[in-house]
Amino acid sequence: MTTSHMLSAVIPLIADLAQDMPERERLRRLLAALRTLLPADAVALLRLEGEWLRPMAMDGLVPDVLGRRFRLSEHPRFAQLLAAGQAMRFAPDSPLPDPYDGLIANHGQVLHQLHVHDCMGCVLQLGGAPWGLLTLDALQPGRFADPAALALLQAFGNLASATVATAERVRQLALPARGSRLPASPGLPPERELLGQSPAMRELRKNMALIAASDLNVLITGETGTGKELVAQALHARSGRAHKPMISINCAALPDNLVESELFGHVRGAFTGALSERQGKFEQAHQGTLFLDEVGELSLPVQAKLLRVLQSGQLQRLGSDREHHVDVRILAATNRDLAAEVEAGRMRADFYHRLNVYPLAVPPLRERDSDVLLLAGCFLEENRSRLKLGGLRLDAAAQSALLTRDWQGNVRELEHLISRAVLQALSRAPQTPAAPRGALRPRMLTLSAQDLGETAPRAACAPAAAGLPAGMPVTAPVTAPDAPPEGLRSAVQAYERQLVQASLQRHNRSWAAAARELQMDRANLQRLARRLGLA
Question: E strands within 172-233?
């Protein structure tokens, strides 16, 4: 490599240090420059967070890698790189498994060609402590055999350290001014954080950063399985109350006859079985956070009992005349449209407005673009670790299948689907005849669309997708209609417009009633109507 070639790659990066640019773009340029200097099939930048490594940027790896979190104790190559403290290369015949086996973006390679055969990396230092790793991988043995490659990587690592230091300073300066990015959450395990880079998730994080440090009550809304509890945990962990407990209550499981005891506590003898004095959830959460999950399930009498403590912080234990004062921040979550519940008389308006001081809407997975692959990467790594697998990957058809599902169960549905698919794929993996079934794990396990249950086009096996009412029995094969002359998209929009118009007319333009009939969230129905030109 000529000196001019090296300078042409490095000089723009030095100039970038003085520029204000998004962190993702800064890191992307860093990795792109590295690939022009060293012949790697994939490069990655990983940040050290306790015992975990988090991918911050990558080039040449499959998309789900950005959602994975690598535990150092399970990845000896990463651990050795950190221990070395400088650039090092692993021998092509190293017995240590490579974390990226099967995860390098392939271009038609068969499975046995996807193993990493040459690997090197270096530690990035920040303030005298290890910040993370810069890794390079190649499918061809001997790709990094040139002795000059290590020296070049070490020199580049110093520049990379300056780049991440600049990114850190820019981020810290931007936080007070814009609040657009949440700081690291010490209270959440890295594998259970809020993952996603879609515009919808960036907007959610922006609002969370704005409200996290305040004491305002927050109403977290969203469909089932979207991660509302994770949002609540993140808000608590980043608040001034993080050093105090966050107490969670499943409101759907609160029986009316025990609600006062559970929430406010009781004194000895207050009722049969009350053998000792007991604090309620509000007192347990004093100076901390109380999370009311499924708050829309509370009955009207229970709402009335909660209203006083929400207004004044004053409560009485059951069977006692003594007043107790509590300082509690309320975070509530629901998958119901509470404004519609107020309109229907199933929720008190004063109770609703006490909760809905700052609303946060968690987007459904179908509105989060390719976040599904990042989340899939998180769940794949969890399953790989739990089942002691060498590697776990999605083939191209499986990735496409994940991206085209409608995800009615959202992130929870994805998590369960990945777990089932791993077991399906594992059952097909060859076993050693002399070993008990499951005793020998394959070095790499690949999930196919078949493992995900995608054995036929979704429209062919779901009556609703073919335009039939949900639940209608299909007694004969449905003949495929001719292609509509105006095109599929226009035909679908026309049918949607017809359904929405008819439902609104039947319910006298009541959005809440129409949404219930169409089995949609009211806000989603109104957005659909605006898109169809009906509102």
Answer: 218-221
Cα atoms found within 13 Å of the Cα of residue 329, Cβ hemisphere only: 27
User: In one letter, which amino acid is 375?
Assistant: L
CATH class of 215-229+244-362: alpha beta
**180 C-beta neighbours (distance < 10 Å), count:** 14
Rounded Cα distance between 441 and 448, Å, is 18
pLDDT band at 12, cuts 50/70/90?
A: low
Q: Cα(285)–Cα(291) distance, rounded to whole angstroms?
A: 9
- Concatenating the DSSP letter of every residue in 486-511 gives T-HHHHHHHHHHHHHHHHHHHTTT-H
- How far, in Å, CA of 184 to CA of 416, rounded? 27
Distance CA 124, CA 127 (A): 10
Cα pseudo-dihedral 520, 524, 530, 532, rounded to 10: -50
For the beta carbon of residue 80, count every other beta carbon within 10 angstroms: 15
CATH number of the 3-178 domain:
3.30.450.40
What's the CA gap between 190 and 117, in Å, rounded? 29
CATH class of domain segment(s) 366-428+443-457 = mainly alpha
Q: Could you tell me which residues come within 8 angstroms of residue 156 by beta carbon, excluding any fewer than 6 positions away?
A: 10, 34, 37, 38, 134
Q: CB 248: neighbour CB atoms within 10 A?
A: 18
Alpha-carbon distance of 445 to 391, in angstroms, equals 6
Number of H helices, E strands in the chain: 18, 17
The 10s digit of each residue's pLDDT in 21-66 is 677 788 888 888 888 888 899 999 999 999 999 999 999 999 999 9
Q: Which of 168, 155, 164 is nearest to 9 (CA)?
A: 155
